[in-house]
Amino acid sequence: MSAAGAPDLLERRLVFVTGKGGVGKTTIAAALAILAASRGRRVLVCEVDAKGTLAAALESGPLRFQPRTVLLRIDAMAMNTEDSLREYLKLMVRLPVVARVGPLARTLDFVADAAPGVREILTVGKLCYEVRVGHYDLVVVDAAASGHIVGQLSAPWAINELVQVGMVREQTRWMTEILADPARTGVVVVTNPEELPVAETLQLLDQLADAVPVDVAAVVVNRVLPELFTRDEQAVFDRLREPAALAALSKRAGRDTERVLDAAALAVALRRERAENLLDLQAGLPPSMPTLLVPELFARSQGKRAVMQVADALGEELG
Amino acid sequence: MAPRRSRPRPETATLEQLLAAKEVVVTCGSGGVGKTTTAAALATMAAVHLGGRVLVLTVDPARRLADALGLDRIGNIEHVVPPEAFAEAGLKPRGELWAAMLDTKASWDDLIRRHAPDERTRDAILANPLYENITSQFIESHDYIAVERLHELHSSGRFDLIVVDTPPTRNALDLLDAPGRMEEFFGGRLLRWLTAPIRNRVVGAASRPFLNMADRILGAHFLQDISEFFVLLQSMEAGFVTRAREVSRVMADSRSTFCVVTTLETAAAREAAFFVDQLHRRDLHLGAVIVNKALPPYLHEEGPAASAAKLHDDASAIADAVAAVLKAPPTRIGRVLIEVAESFDNYAVVAKREAEQSTELAAVADVVVTVPILDEPVNDLASLVRLGECCWR
After folding, report:
1. Best residue in A236, A242, A272, A296 for a mutation probing chain B (most B CBs within 10 Å)
2. CB < 8 Å from A in window 324-353 of B
């Protein structure tokens, strides 16, 4: 849970953005990067699952392991555990034979299939390493979805438990120090005001609190529908669909007016349903948890433009 | 193996016909598209209209849906949805609806119990620290266990139709590849290497650096732990491999079909198209693409758009004209009309984009059925049937 005295979200060094699939995790990660950069911070944004959605959101073209400047003060990369292992071996083990180990991908599959947490540690390790070397003020991670984030974040602790000796044990120590420090690391859980994402968010917060000593910095509720009517206006709207009113309206605005009213009724119903889910979410969150609301954009723009609108909304929420 | 049809026969042009003709229906798609609800709705419709014993094997239903199916109480073991629940919803099912939840850990434990050669091996595996890690944390194990469980239930012959809701896979391929990968794993060099006692490993010049490196990085003790675990697992190889082959066979069988569930959001539709392509490549049967939560088509028609524009532009004049009928202040009516028109425009933008996605999806699959967005949550039998009726025939 958001620790007392923890710094604001954008003041941290490492932010993991997670959430149920389909809620807009990547958009929020990209928007946080853009917002932080607009406030003068040098940002690295990293896509973990290599689906290419971050590249699409930033309109950056394909991303690779090697960070590349995509916007002012923003570098972007795509995680690749094989490259991460290669870099690790080069930096830490200083093995001259690395080149002769054979195709690293095959070797890695060997180890990763057998030893739990190897892929996760290579991912989290690289991100912690970037924090440690300090080329960037902030590392934003478009992280694993809520089903896997606990496994990903807890990998250094799990490995630390499993591995009794060796270099890895040494290295998991500084990783856990960075991860467990609320001044440096925070998790952002993205959700929608819909039943399943809300339930999954509350469940995830419990799991994180139980299993991983990483601070949850904020919950972002994406795609909040606008309120259409005040109570008085709602009363007027409800009566617009009565036969006499509808006839009067249709006479002036055409016979498809009823369809327009149907659409508004659907919008009201959807909003009402989401508002209830939002209340459920807020009731389940600890009162100290910062909750940021991002409005539904109605797909009017996509890609970078949409992300910038979301960044603006987040900026207003963060103040 | 019988030659596969690349196109459904005419008699499976609707979901009703498809479900009547098949024994296994696997629903797949990316997260958040309503896959679990759709699987539950298909199974409910089959139980209501087609009869027989229908099972929905689900992964992680929303609480209220789980309540409706009685899954909160029973979980991993399949059980019948009581007839009273149907009666309450005003339904008279011709058959029985059964439901079960997929509990990965419990299913793995079952599997180990079934295949372990003796008690000692069984207990050693269940107690191994790596076992829990591998079975509970790694998504591939969810995929494998889902198809494994499906096979077990299918071969039991207890059900006429099984609808399987798949776990949200990181990659749609995982599920299809899981049995093959399991077989490969047991047959592969990796397992032999892992299970050779460390001192006896035939270390060629090429792999010595790797071994040294692995020891340096991970510590010999850890490698020993891994090694022990896989020695135990290897004792079950025959059972696992046979099983994996059978599971693959069930998926490719002509009695099985796949339904790809999607919404018309860009990312979900892209995943759906990708999945359809993968099914074709693997010669697996695509029964239907089910488009969920679609906005009503009138949102991208010209007539309503013109009416919305008039309501917006002439709001105050129209408000004055209807004020007498409504007995409300014209300014308030004017605000309502403008809000109504703007809301229409908002949704029309989304609907237009959805229509484009829909056209693209229609090009990749023969059977595309559309379920409109419902303005109430789908969380009981009656609402499952309402959803089902939208796409059944």
Report:
1. A236
2. 325-326, 328, 332-333, 335-336, 339-341, 343-344, 346-350, 353
The answer to whether A178 and A130 have CB atoms below 8 angstroms apart is no
pTM of the predicted model over 0.90: no
| Residue of higher predicted confidence among B386 and B63 | B386
**Chain B residues 215-244 with a CB less than 8 Å from chain A:** 215-219, 221-222, 225-226, 230
Residue position matching structure tokens 């049995």: B179
CA B329 to chain centre: 51
Q: How far is B300 from chain A (nearest CA, A)?
A: 11
Of all residues in chain B, the percent with pLDDT exceeding 90 is 34
B134 in reach of chain A (CB within 8 A): yes
A contacts of B230 (beta carbons < 8 Å):
114
β-bridge partners, A191: A221
Question: Can you give the length of chain B in residues?
Answer: 393
Instruction: Note whether A244 contacts B209, CB cutoff 8 Å.
Output: no
Mean pLDDT of B333-344: 96
The per-type count for chain A, helices as H runs and strands as E runs, is: 12, 8
Out of B64, B226, B310, name the one closest to residue A254 (CB). Answer: B310
Q: Where are the strands (E) in B301-374, listed by range?
A: 368-372
The interface predicted TM-score of the complex, written ipTM, equals 0.84
Tens of pLDDT along B182-228? 677 666 666 666 666 544 545 454 555 555 666 666 666 666 666 77
**Helix, strand or coil, per DSSP, at residue B314:** coil
Collapsing DSSP states into helix, strand and coil, what is residue A123?
Answer: helix
Long-range (24+ apart) CB contacts under 8 A made by B268-277 are: B268/A22, B268/B29, B268/B30, B268/B32, B268/B33, B269/B357, B269/B360, B269/B361, B271/B29, B271/B30, B271/B172, B272/B29, B272/B30, B272/B361, B273/B360, B273/B361, B273/B364, B274/B172, B275/B28, B275/B29, B275/B172, B276/B364, B276/B365, B277/B364
A149 pLDDT above the threshold of 70: yes
Q: What is the pLDDT of residue B223?
A: 64
pLDDT at B2: 42
Give me the residues paired with residue A15 across strands. Answer: A140, A186
Cβ-Cβ contacts under 8 Å between A and B: the total is: 213
